[in-house]
Every structure is written in structure tokens, then in C-alpha cells.
Amino acid sequence: MSTPARVVVRNYTGQLVGMTAWLLQRVTGLLLLFYLFLHVETIHQLSAGQAAFDQQLAFYGTPFFKLLEIGLLATVILHAFNGIRLTVLDLGIAHGRQRKLFWVLVMGAGTALFIAGAVPIFIFSVLQR
Amino acid sequence: MNYTVSIQRSRQGGKAAWKSYALEAAEEMTVLDALFAIRQQQDATLAFRCSCRVGMCGTCAIRINGVARLACKTRLSALKSQQVTLTALPHFPVVRDLAVALDPFFEQWRRIRPRFRPQNPEASELARIPAGSDYSRLTSGKRDCITCGACFAACSIPGMNKRYLGPAAINRALLRILDPRDAAHQQRLDSVNDLHAGVWRCHTQFSCGAVCPKGINLTHSITLLKRGVVGNQAESNA
Amino acid sequence: MMLRNSIWWYLQRITGAALVPLLVAHFWVEHYMTASIRHGHLSYQAILTRVANPLWQAIDISFLLIALFHGLHGLFGIILDFGWIERRGARITATVLTMIGIAWAYWGIEAFRHL
Q1: pLDDT tens across B109-119, in order?
Q2: Average model confidence (pLDDT) for chain B?
Q3: How many Å lie between the alpha carbon of B125 and the closest alpha carbon of chain A?
Q4: Which class would CATH give A17-126?
């Protein structure tokens, strides 16, 4: 028989904050690298002329794309805030509070900033269409 | 209190299978006590390692409810559950049931040359480190490693990368590097500087320090080496 | 005296720290200044005007170069973490990633020259 899920969660969550943060950093990093590729490609489209570019822009204005943008915001915030957390820890500061740092800085402040950014995008872009 | 102890059992090269035991035990008993009780009362074929039973030798490290811990130092009451799930330490080859071969750990341990190399092997007087000295201060809390392997098991990097030295080996290397009496600083610095095996493969997950039965902040030791804070120490002592 | 490889460790953190204000500025400029979020989309003219300005070009190119170093060096770390490559393999991988970075940077800078 396998360990009941609730026991695994309770016993694991405390230990796995650091490991989850590491995994998140890797995954968001790769996603952002891929995004950077798409972004440079888009800027190249500027040279295609107004008509072609406006067509691209229309696509970027669709609700689907705006949702992707909100996803991008979340990815960036996760990666940046955890990066700040890691840099603080790498300076030898707050080692005993690394989990707290994750919950407060990455999840807490990160979520607040995410809401501040995502809500305007959502309201003015997704809902208006 | 009634406990259900589920153990992942296997023979070398065989498939692992779970076996559960119902156990009536006092809360203050340790997981090691529980293992002995099961072995004596229910199943004499159960295999597990132990030696001192008081948290000094590091032999009984296993994974208890998902966390690498010493069985002799983990009370059933601390688990806050009547379901006790035991598996062998990950990242080590399983010999049988909960007993693992510690070769991966000691292979890395040896790579940093853990043995003390005196600067003057012919010296007749003992080289003393006074209390309150730099070495004493910097290594306080880092000297108690009992090579239990829990840190090596808890960190995700040894699971991905067979070459990683692991927190214990790096911590021991740090102690030798900081030791003003030691003569092999550069060799140890070179091994922790290795791109594939050394401190650079640590990604500050903190799992190591969280499971260390001696409470060593291993991440801190590794961070000191990354930042080069200890380099100066080694230079002035060389 | 630092470990020989620590310069890369420091650079990853320094570039990471530098990316934070660059990103904030970029996001603000794009989504709140240039885009006029109330209208819901950017306009070709607005972007062109901003991007034709040499100051913005300099900032954007710096942003790109710093992001490329940080991202590709991070990718290098992930590859090393898996322990797939031997010692010589690390040098080859580093060279390949550097070449990808240079090509990518050139491709990015080129985008400005066609305007």
C-alpha cells in the first residue's frame, strides 16, 4: 500500500519548499528563454510594414493572447522574486528563514504584484472584447 | 497507540513491494524501537541497519514518512500520524529492505581527501587550536558530521548527477580548507571547484541542512565556498 | 581568493539583479506608456516612434544582451546538473551556447537596423 496523500503532503511540504523553488526557477527560466526567442522574432516583424504588423498586433490583442500575457507575467514574477530570494540567501543572509522568505516574498509579494498587473490587463483587454 | 508501519521491502535486484504491519506501541518509542518490535514479534526476515541506537553512529538513516532521518532519533510521536511509512534512503543501491550500500556517498567523501594532512609530519609537539580562534569560530557547528548519508539522500542533485560531491563531502572539505594546520588546501579547493562535481552544482535547496541529524547548516558551508569567503583563510595559512 | 569558477556564479546573480529594473522599466514603458492599456492594443506608429529613438535602442539592446547571458548560462547550468556531459563536453557545450548567444544577439540587434 502507498502512503496516504494527506500524510505525504504534510510531511513533504515543509521539506520541499527549497526543492520546489529550485524546480520552479528552472521551469520558468526555460519558458522565459523560449519567450525571448518569440519576442525577438516579433520585433523583426516591425520591418514587414504597417499592414503586416497591424495584423500581428490584432492577434496580440485577442483575449487568448492576453491570457498568455498574464501567464507571462506570472512566470516573470516567479522567476524574478525567487531569484531575489536566492541572491539574498547566497549572501549568507536569512538561512534559517529560507522557507519563510519563499512564502512571504515569492508567494506573498509576488501574488500581490501579479494581481496588480494582471487585473488591468484582464479588465481592459480580455473583458472589453 | 495503534500504528500501521508500511515498509518498502525488496531483495537486491528484485522488485520492491510494500508490506504493512500493525503495531501497538508507546508514543515515546522511536522508529528503530518499532523496527525491532516488528522483527522480534512479527517478521524475522525484516532487514535494517543500526548500531549505537543513540544518534552517534549514523547507521540507521532511512526515509521516514518521506523524510531522511535517523530511525533511532525519530520518536513515533514526532511523526504526528499513526501511519508510518518507511523506505530505504534514495540515491543509494538497496541491499535489502531498508539497508542500503553507502558506496556512492563514500566515493565522493574520499574524493575530497578527508584525511587530515599535517604541515609538518615530523613534528613532535601537538599543534593546538585555541578556543576562540578563527578556526574554532568558523567551524563551530560544522564539525559533528556522522556520515549518515541523510543529506546526500535528501538533495535532488545526487539523484540527477552521479558526480556531485554532496553536502557532507563539501562540508568536510571546508573544514580541512579552514584548518590552519592542514597542508592540502589547494587539492581540496580544486575538488570543490569542479564544475561537474563541486559547489557549483548546489542550487540552494536547503534539503541537506533540514535533514542533518546534527543540525549542521550544510548550505551555509557550501555558500561560504561559493562566495570565496574562506579562500583568504586558506591563502594566509598556506 | 575565490574559487576559479566563481566569476560565473557572481555574473549570473549580477545579471539577474540587473534584469529586474530593466524588466520593470520595459514592462512599464510597453504596457502603460506606449500601449495605452485602456485602448487595449499597441499601434505600429507608437512602437516605431519609441524604437527609432537611439536611447531606447541602447536600453533594449543592453536588456537583450544581459538577458541572453543570464538565460543561456542558466541553460548551461541545467545541462550540467543532469550530469550528461563529460569534462570536454562541458567546454564544447559552453562554446555552442556562446555561439547561439552571439547569433541570437546579432539577430536581435539587426531588428533595429531595418526600421
Answers
A1: 999 999 989 88
A2: 92
A3: 37
A4: mainly alpha
